[in-house]
Write a structure and sequence with these properties.
four-stranded antiparallel beta sheet, single chain, about 50% helix, DUF4268 domain-containing protein
Length: about 150
Amino acid sequence: MWSKNEAKELRENFWNGFKRYCAQHHIYRKWVLTGVKIRSTQLKFYADEEKALVLFQIDHKNDFRRYEVYECFQSYRKLMAADCGDDLQWCEDYTGIGDRPVSAIYFELPGVNLYRSEDWDKIYAFFAGKMPLLEEAYWEYRDLITERLKAVR
């Protein structure tokens, strides 16, 4: 088990390593991440002791509103699957991150560990390969989802 400071240093090294990985592989892009213009939704990289995820996370504090946003995304599920592939997963009440459920549309890489440096290149390649797919889906459907959400209010 790692001490709190050791775990923090490993996480920092991991994310700095991802920056180096991107530079070495000529991936010069600004990831959308929190620049998503759909309220309470972010594109997110996530890794822990069991898995790595690239996801749309819908985390509105009001569960009813969170479900509304998720349902809007859900209406584009077939189109997004065509764009992103069949390994895109959907979960209305995902509990694999943090202590409260979120709605998630995600890619998962199981069996990797953020704290095991020999897994890092595999995680980095996963992140760099999957995030552009979700970003493209975001840009493709953002305006449609935003308009639908305005209509529901």
